[in-house]
Amino acid sequence: MATVLSRALKLPGKKSPDLGEYDPLTQADSDESEDDLVLNLQQKNGGVKNGKSPLGEAPEPDSDAEVAGAAKPHLSEVTTEGYPSEPLGGLEQKATSSLVSYIRTSVFLLTLVISMILVLLCAFLIPCPPRDLHSTWSRHLGSQAGGDLSPLELADVNGDGLRDVLLSFVTSRNGSAAGSSRSTANLVCLSGMNGSTLWSSPLPEEAQDITCLDLMPGSVAEIICLVTGTRKMLSAFNATSGKAIWTLNPNYLSNGTLAAPVVLLPDLDEDHVRDLVVLAIGETQPDLCFLLVSGRTGNPIGRPVKYNIVGVGNLIGPQVYVTANGAVYILFGFGNIQAVALRDIFVQAQNRDSSPPSLQIEEPEWEKRRSINLSELIDVYSDGVELLQMVKAPDSNCSNLLVTTRQGLVLLRGQNLTPYWTLSLQGLRSQPTPGYFTDDQTLDFLLQIQDGLGMKKMMVIDGDSGSIAWSYSAPCHMKDAPTTSAVTSDQKSVFLFWAEGLSPASPNSDALMGAEPPSLHHLYLLHPAFPSIFLDLTNTSGTVTASEVGINDLWKDAFYVTRTTGPISEGHPAPLVVSKLSLRWALMEGQMVQLKETAPKIGRGELRRFLSRIKFVDSPYQI
């Protein structure tokens, strides 16, 4: 029994310090019974089962053939219990999976490289829109020979996203005779980017107004520039090429001359192009007539319509007013404001009783103001009128009427022509500039009032109540210096005006008298958030005759364009200069002027941080 146990303890392929080395020859000489006993003992003690050991070892061979076979076991036969053997197809699946992963990675990297190449191509081949951050330029256009008018207009004529500058001026050229000269008028378009000349067209007479617009709203038609002359010229120019599209035949004006700029009307002749009306006046004041003109051809739509009006004062209008109900009226007058329905003008021009359906609408509150004899004229306001402006009414699709009189300012409700408020002021001669100064989202107005010799008072009127919201007196010898405003993204306005150089505040004077000569004028900016601070943006020694503010929608910037005549030297005409100033750039470079010593001091850093966040947008109101 001891022999059997000792042999049973000799496990195959194992070394044991107590049992010695494994001997296959001795194992071969043993009989079968002993081998069976050994196997049975192994199975009882958790040994080999089904020819496999619990540790995954091959069973001990019992013959030389088995030893030779065990020396090279098949891969599929040597497996661990509980794990199936892996066939040869598993290696093929692994190889296929690796190939698919490689192909996916390659496709991803190839797609990434192609995308990067396309981005670089777009960056270099597609031109970027011009950036107008530092677009400040000045262009000298030679000498201006005479001409009291200074028309100036902004419009994008070359499609680069920047508004260009259009103006008309008169130049003097030497004639054939010795010492003789001949004056010629020109219409010039300057690039908004750098001030270069885009095109120039001669005019038969001096222009009093330039208006660029789209006569076909909602279409992709080119912009048209309407030029009104001082006598009989009315022409439409292609804003891109500068070529004339049509010109009104002066014979249609008979003995009259154009008294005011052309006015835009709805489409009257149903050719899908908006039409026009001009006001002509004869040698005597009562001889006044309206002429309807086709916007497509420049031909009259019917005959002239005459009205006999007697008044004292400035010519008012004509201006088109559309009521909330859609009724269309023409406002005009001499020192007063009269209204005539466009329907009445059209019926008389066509010499018929019918009119288009769009002209048959009436405004009951306006019609009540007709005289007892049912005259075509409607009395709107008659008390020393100097100026008339259309002001967009808040939360309404119509406008109110801002009337400047010799006695002050009156705001009329457009719906029923009753006064909204009245402000008594003396010395008001310039046109009020609308903008948002208070926080009620109602348009306020910047005024310039003569305040003694060489002084003017700047005043902001609250548009909701008519009260004075802000005022300041500044030295200014420039006659009729223009003012303007620009709207910011937070529904505030910055106001721009001209005055002489201001020095630090004096405790005994409200005005800041500068030490500079009166011939040098500065452009100042007022922001409602800092009413005690002016920003000095630029200066000029000439006389500013016209100014306009345009918006660069792409960069949320505003630019200020001025038309200036330089100092006149003896025997030489005044030079004409057109300048453009980027407001966002000027805000960061401008000099801060503290108006009053008693006002809270504001740090330069705090002010710069505030100004750097200002963004300009298109004006939401129409004048």
TrEMBL record:
Keyword Membrane: yes
Domain FAM234A/B beta-propeller: 152-616
Location relative to the cell: Membrane
Domain of life: Eukaryota
Keywords: Membrane, Transmembrane, Transmembrane helix
SUPFAM superfamilies attached to this UniProt entry: Quinoprotein alcohol dehydrogenase-like
Record keyword Transmembrane present: yes
Gene3D superfamilies reported for this sequence: YVTN repeat-like/Quinoprotein amine dehydrogenase (2.130.10.10)
InterPro entries in the record: Beta-prop_FAM234A_B (IPR055409), FAM234 (IPR045232), Quinoprotein_ADH-like_sf (IPR011047), WD40/YVTN_repeat-like_dom_sf (IPR015943)
Protein's membrane topology: Single-pass membrane protein
GO cellular component terms, A-Z: membrane
Major location category of this protein: membrane
Annotated segments matching region Disordered: 1-89
Residue stretches spanning the membrane: 107-126
PANTHER family: PROTEIN FAM234B, PTHR21419
Family: Belongs to the FAM234 family.
Name of the protein this chain belongs to: FAM234A/B beta-propeller domain-containing protein
Species this protein is from: Marmota monax (Woodchuck)
